[in-house]
Amino acid sequence: MNDRIRVPEVRLVGPNGEQVGIVPIAKALELARESDLDLVEVAPTARPPVAKLMDYGKFKYESAMKAREARKNQAHTVIKEIKLRPKIDPHDYETKKGHVVRFLKAGDKVKVTIMFRGREQSRPELGYRLLQRLADDVEELGFVESRPKQDGRNMIMVIGPHKKKAARGQETETA
Q: The dihedral of CA 16, 17, 19, 20: what is its sign?
């Protein structure tokens, strides 16, 4: 920017995007001072480098505002976790399923973990059946993002919300 540009000549672009041409750096700096703007190097690897006349403070402010707006519009995904055991009581299962339903309606992903202890580790099919049952029960709200897989003493499955359902759930909460 300005006096920090260390090349003999630059391809100059005017403040409105018009091509001025290849000019010596001294003349480019003079034009910048006359129009009360900054000389900013926009393509330093080009031969000769490309420099533009612009208000650098305004440019930095506008790019920061664009970045902030982009961050605001980003989808923020949250992963909630539910832990179960293979020998779960029917009422406890319904309670945990209700939590999963609530998380999916809010648009969050749910990581369902089944913890095996002792002899339960020799019967992973019990955990697999329980996860399949849960996936079938919440099928209208979410889809299985990652199939059930054994991870040491645990079996893990991730359920993600359907996009349309999650958006509709947020609309009813705000209304």
A: positive
User: What pLDDT is recorded for position 164?
Assistant: 60
Amino acid letter, 66: K
- For residues 57 and 55, what is the distance between their CA atoms, to the nearest angstrom? 6
Tokens read off for 67: 């970045």
| Structure-block tokens of residue 172 | 């009813």
What's the Rg (C-alpha) of the chain?
Answer: 30
Tell me how far apart the 2 most distant CA atoms of the chain are, in Å: 84
Average pLDDT over residues 17-23: 82
Q: Establish whether the linkage from the previous residue to 48 is cis, with ω within 30° of 0.
A: yes
| pTM exceeds 0.70, yes or no | no
Write the burial class of residue 74 (CB in 10 Å: 0-12 exposed, 13-18 middle, 19+ buried). exposed
Give ∠ CA 13-17-19 in degrees, rounded to 5.
Answer: 45
* SS3 call for 32: helix
